[in-house]
Write a structure and sequence with these properties.
Largest sheet: 5 strands, antiparallel
Shape: elongated
Helix content: 25-40%
Number of domains: 2
Structural class: alpha+beta
Oligomer: single chain
Strand order of the largest sheet: 2-3-1-4-5
Distance between the termini: 70 Å
Length: 254
Amino acid sequence: MDDTVTLALGGGAVPLREFAMALDRMNRALQQLASDAGARIDWVVAGLDYSSAIATIVGRPLDQASEALVAKVVDGFGAAGEAVAYGRPATASPKTIELLRQITAVLGEGIDEVRFETATREAVVRAGEQPAGELVASEPSRDRGTVVGRVQTLQGRGRLRFTLYDLANDRAVSCWLSTGQEELMRGAWGRLVEVAGVVWRDATTNVPLSVRQVTDLNVLSEPAPEAWLSARGAVRAPGSPAAEQVIRQLRDAW
């Protein structure tokens, strides 16, 4: 059962005041979605990642009738996030949509990105994408591929999910596992890994946002302390000749 939602605020230094404000509006939006669905759900914090201010929240039904409604509410949250970010038709109540829009109002100094996530949906809004109060964001691309990075956090409560910090961009990437894939994570915490699956990427920058439908995870060997020395000469120093010029000079010298 999909019972997990995620709110991520990206930025170099996310202010506590804005993070607390966003979480309060997130809680109110989830409560509104549950109320509209006729469900009684207790929302529990399953994980907090400090670097990018990521909150993972799990829905716990309070009665038997609500058990079948948790997944519906979670999917409704993801759909509402997409409506806010990409201008899709909204199926959620106007109050829910307004609360999610209020979350994006924290964009600014210290926060350059707001992400609403579920195991199947991804909605991203960035600073500067709100002309005249309307969000004009490009939807993420998705294709099978791999992401290399270091596993920083792992949540086993609710839907199994871990946060990978992309080696190339040092950005948090949410990786969603399926039931029965717990063994993939054995010994992976804090390690450098390569994750294969459907990679969702920012349509503009091509930076990975998340990996879903994970098919494999390989723990990589840690590089030697002086491995960086092998990259000497990879970048041309200012004013130095291009590689093809050097090759031509060596050829002519023969």
